[in-house]
Design a protein that fits this description.
The protein is α/β, with parallel strands linked by helices. The protein has 2 domains: 257 residues, Aspartate Aminotransferase, domain 2; 100 residues, Aspartate Aminotransferase, domain 1 (Alpha-Beta Complex), CATH 3.90.1150. Helix content is 40%, strand content 12%. The protein has a 7-stranded mixed β-sheet with strand order 1-7-6-5-4-2-3, sandwiched between helices. Helix 1 crosses helix 3. The longest helix has 35 residues. The protein starts with a helix and ends with a helix.
């Protein structure tokens, strides 16, 4: 009799047939929808096999494959095998990880993983609260809410009106947009987010940050939160975390690491030194669907203050058993009280590869990025940004305007040659960005990308 593993591996092999594509031509919004009523009319039942076949064909034809060797996007595709296996376990067994008593096995597995991640980051195991969230975005927002709860004693009950002066958040210009969204959701307002001057690679200038904070205080505002980016979407920049911690300590502010891009680089021999200082921050959040290969779509939150996490997210639910002393429960983890066993795919994947194996995967991406930089320079391109991260920003010859860069990126994606993005560099210059995020990317894919971006029309 076939084992469950055998069946899953056969299904994965079937899904992999045809290879997929790094990018697809999206056409116009709504163009596909008119073709779907044939299979998804919702009025009459459809045979399961026909429905699944139609759905698989549709998704294959209209979805970029994030783990494709020619995919150079900032959201990593991740591991299909561990994700599929975890989803099968959760759905097939009817796992309900909303309270410890309903799924103590899942809770303890997640606790085991989070304890290990605390050790990898270097935070104090006795003082750090480690929580699994449904997504990385939830983990970032949870950190902001916990910070406001800790920094402003009356915020928990009265909200922002209880704060003397406007509470302010500081981050690099390249990540202002995401933090504006989070500030809006937390009730602080988008205007609370202050962008800080950066160097050529997109990293915060600590001196400029300190001056901005001092001036804001003199103006009657209340600076309270510094977000250190670890893998900014535009350049992959990692802010000087240790220096930002020093600024935060002097100014009495909460220092947070936004690791949704390269936060899991803490496993890497190459990237870990760039994340030096993470052990001393007030909170650290990252996700498994960030800019590095992993499995699943979980967010992880680490906080060295127990009180604000407990006060911000603990809730009594009359539908469930009482909270279990000493147990980390989903309903006290973040904004969502009822979530999936979100950490299980990453746990299975990490256990399969081991710490050293994961480090080797990430370091290999960095080597591929080095090879891409060399090939681009040889082809006459100008290369910008940090040379340490697996993110390459470059300016092909003959392109001048933002529209030129966006047009070239769109043509390359529409032809399914590769997925690359047009971005704006810290100095305002346009560039193309290739984020090396797929472990299957090799020399031939690099050569094809360079040829595509340097070929004349």
């Amino acid at each position: 009799m076939d084992s469950l593993v055998d069946r899953i591996e056969r299904l994965l092999a079937t899904l992999a047939e045809g290879g997929g594509a790094p990018a697809v031509d999206p056409g116009r919004p709504g163009a596909i929808r008119s073709q779907l009523a044939e299979h998804f009319e919702f009025q009459q039942p459809v045979a399961r096999e026909d429905l699944l076949r139609a759905a698989a064909a549709l998704l294959r034809a209209t979805s970029a494959q994030g783990d494709h060797s020619q995919y150079f996007g900032s959201i990593a595709g991740g591991s299909r095998d561990a994700t599929l296996a975890a989803a099968a376990f959760e759905a097939g067994l009817g796992v309900l990880p909303v309270s410890w008593e309903l799924a103590p096995g899942v809770a303890e597995l997640e606790g085991l993983l989070m304890s290990y991640l605390v050790e990898v980051i270097g935070m104090d195991a006795q003082r750090t609260v480690a929580r699994v969230c449904e997504t990385g975005e939830e983990a970032q927002l949870a950190a902001l809410i916990a910070a406001a709860t800790q920094c402003f004693p009356d915020f928990e009950q009265q909200g922002v009106q209880a704060v003397d002066g406007r509470p302010l958040i500081y981050c690099a210009q390249s990540i202002v947009g995401p933090w504006q969204k989070r500030a809006h959701a937390a009730g602080l307002g988008r205007g609370a987010v202050q962008g800080v001057a950066c160097d050529a690679s997109g990293c915060i200038d600590p001196i400029a940050l300190r001056h901005q904070i001092i001036e804001a205080g003199r103006a009657g505002n209340t600076p309270f939160f510094i977000a250190a980016g670890a893998g900014a979407a535009s350049t992959g920049a990692i802010d000087p975390i240790k220096k930002l911690v020093a600024v935060g300590r002097v100014q009495g502010m909460w220092v947070h690491v936004d690791g949704n891009g390269l936060g899991l680089g803490i496993f890497s021999n190459r990237l870990a030194p760039l994340l030096d200082g993470s052990a001393y921050v007030d909170s650290f959040a990252c996700e498994t669907r960030g800019g590095l290969p992993a499995a699943g779509s979980a967010g992880f939150l680490f906080c060295r203050h127990l009180r604000p996490v407990g006060h911000a997210f603990a809730v009594e639910d009359p539908r469930l058993p009482g909270m279990t002393a000493g147990a980390a429960e989903a309903r006290a983890s973040g904004l969502l009280g009822a979530r999936r066993a979100a950490a299980l795919p990453f746990l299975l994947w990490l256990a399969q590869h081991g710490h050293a194996g994961y480090a080797e995967i990430i370091d290999r991406l960095c080597v591929r990025a080095d090879e891409l930089r060399s090939a681009l320079l040889e082809a006459g391109c100008q290369v910008r940004g940090s040379e340490e991260v697996p993110v390459v920003c470059f300016l092909p010859p003959l392109l001048e305007t933002h529209a030129d860069f966006e047009g070239l990126a769109s043509r390359i994606r529409a032809q399914s040659i590769a997925w690359v993005d047009a971005v704006c560099l810290p100095d305002g210059a346009p560039a193309l960005r290739a984020w090396v995020s797929s472990p299957s990317t090799g020399p031939s894919e690099i050569a094809a990308l360079v040829e595509a971006v340097t070929a004349s029309d």
